């Protein structure tokens, strides 16, 4: 198969959008929805593949994917850390959690770690205020309230 993420079933759906709309650019958003539904995330490589398939510049597709919050994508890193910064998490000192995570991963907000393993993003409430400061690694939810550095290290080590 030519693509890793654009599997045949996805390509069929993308084709149906291409047939439906007069301009191929109009197929971008529904295609991103399909990718999100299938993978529960938008892997960066899927953007490259979509760009290749639609023959639309990657920068254009990236622009759309990063404009809409719902299309957050991993920016090419293997793991995506999302730390909540809304009020309850703010009061629970998400900043100190963020500082520790930055130090341990070498990544920064909006920037991959040099080894390409981590990408950090600050997000709005993830519906887990009871365990503030809450954070997600990929789709796994963590309680940051009582984590010491050793425990945090152990969690991070699970993600290669
Ligand atoms: S405010 Fe952080 S999870 Fe709700």
Comma- or semicolon-separated keywords:
160 residues; alpha+beta; 4 strands; elongated
Number of strands: 4
Distance linking N and C termini:
26 Å
In CATH terms, what is the architecture of the largest domain?
A: 3-Layer(aba) Sandwich
Coarse structural class: alpha+beta
* Helix percent band: 40-55%
The tally of structural domains comes to 2
Quaternary status: single chain
Most strands sheet? 4 strands, mixed
What percent strand?
A: 5-15%
In CATH terms, the superfamily of the largest domain is Glutaredoxin
- Mean pLDDT, to the nearest integer, reads 89
Using the coordinates shown, work out and report the CATH topology of the largest domain. Glutaredoxin
Overall morphology: elongated
Bound molecules: FE2/S2 (inorganic) cluster
CATH class of the largest domain: Alpha Beta
Question: Can you count the helices?
Answer: 7
Strand line-up of the largest beta sheet:
2-1-3-4
| Low-confidence sequence ranges | none
Helix and strand pattern? HHHHEHHEEEH
Polypeptide structure, described:
This protein has a 4-stranded mixed β-sheet, covered by helices on one side. The mean pLDDT is about 90. The relative contact order is 0.12. The two termini are about 25 Å apart. It has about 160 residues and is an alpha+beta fold. The chain folds into 2 domains: about 10-70; about 80-155, Glutaredoxin (3-Layer(aba) Sandwich), CATH 3.40.30. Helix content is about 45%, strand content about 10%. It binds FE2/S2 (inorganic) cluster (FES). FE2/S2 (inorganic) cluster binds next to helix 5.
């Amino acid at each position: 198969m030519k693509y890793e993420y654009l599997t045949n079933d996805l390509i069929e759906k993308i084709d149906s959008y291409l047939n439906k709309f007069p301009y191929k650019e109009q197929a971008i958003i529904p295609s991103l929805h399909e990718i999100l539904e299938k993978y529960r995330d938008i892997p960066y490589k899927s953007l490259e593949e979509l760009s290749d398939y639609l023959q639309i510049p990657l920068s254009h597709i990236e622009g759309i994917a990063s404009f809409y919050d719902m299309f957050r994508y991993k920016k090419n890193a293997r793991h995506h850390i999302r730390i909540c910064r809304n009020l309850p998490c703010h009061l629970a000192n998400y900043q100190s959690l963020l500082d520790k995570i930055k130090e341990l991963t070498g990544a920064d907000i909006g920037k991959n770690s040099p080894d390409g393993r981590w990408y950090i993003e600050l997000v709005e409430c993830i519906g887990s205020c009871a365990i503030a400061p809450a954070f997600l690694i990929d789709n796994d939810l963590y309680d940051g309230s009582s984590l010491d550095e050793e425990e945090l290290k152990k969690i991070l080590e699970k993600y290669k």
